[in-house]
Write a structure and sequence with these properties.
Helices cover 70% and strands 3% of the residues. By secondary structure, the chain is mostly helical.
Length: 266
């Protein structure tokens, strides 16, 4: 009782404010230290004392924090404002920040679901492959699911051969050549024509870039390409692509007098 009588009428202790506003004493101490909410008075015993006016200000701070504003934003950008248009501008900027966060979280959720599907389809736990899948999801590589079909040696080669920037560039080249093969096939361009041979050279150069000239990787790539585990959409597109690529490469190698696939197989 003596303790309560020591508090002047109309004032509350830091503990009472914390309980009333559902925050911690440490939070109120932090706001005081940051210059956001200082107590209206201090008792003779050194206790922080707050008034209803302080409660209103605390409510404002907590409400703005709920909207995602940092303490620095509240103190330096919002509190000094006195024009509604200026406040509205700050709120618009904060809305843009939140939309960006939502987009990032939505993307992360999509990547988590995709990775979960791959994890369940893989035959063993392999966090190196998980990391590769995540990187390819970040790169917007629609073929991220191919990673589970690569052996460790091939993946080690890919990691050493490509960084994120060169990986994206290679992926764009691959997609362009895939679409180009379909275009040439639909246009009725002969595989052995100058245009077909030019395409075959570009496609072969892409393979050499991927393998870094290591011919031992060719059988592995062929084996992966012939897998029956691919989804139907990928297999249908790849079959259409191969209708032009295979004869074009054969014509290209015939002109050069080589067959790298046969040579490696023997």
């Amino acid at each position: 009782m003596e303790k309560n009588r020591a508090i002047p009428q109309g004032y509350m202790t830091v503990g009472e404010v914390a309980k009333k506003m559902d925050v911690t004493v440490r939070t109120l101490q932090h706001y005081d230290k940051e210059g956001l909410l200082s107590p209206s008075a201090v008792s003779d015993g050194g206790r922080r004392l707050y008034t209803d006016k302080d409660i209103i200000k605390l409510h404002q701070i907590l409400s703005l924090k709920h909207l995602g504003f940092s303490l620095d934003d509240i103190r330096n950008r919002l509190i000094p404002l006195d024009a509604p248009a200026d406040v509205a501008q700050i709120l618009s900027e904060q809305a843009d920040v939140i939309r960006e966060k939502i987009a990032c979280l939505t993307e992360s959720l999509s990547e988590i679901e995709a990775l979960k599907k791959e994890v369940l389809e893989m035959q063993s736990v392999d966090f190196k492959k998980y990391a590769d899948i995540i990187v390819n999801l970040e790169m917007k590589n629609d073929f991220y699911w191919l990673i589970k079909h690569f052996d460790s040696e091939t993946l080690d080669h890919i990691r050493s051969q490509f960084d994120k920037e060169s990986g994206i560039a290679f992926l764009q080249k691959f997609l362009h050549l895939q679409n180009e093969a379909i275009r040439l096939q639909d246009a009725g361009v002969p595989a052995g024509s100058p245009e077909g041979l030019q395409f075959a050279k570009a496609y072969w150069d892409m393979i050499l870039e991927f393998t870094n000239g290591d011919a031992t990787m060719l059988p592995k790539l062929m084996q992966i390409g012939e897998s029956n585990e691919f989804n139907q959409g990928f297999k249908q597109k790849q079959a259409k692509v191969n209708v032009f690529i295979e004869p074009a490469l054969n014509a290209y190698f015939s002109n050069l007098g080589i067959n790298p696939f046969q040579e490696e197989a023997t």
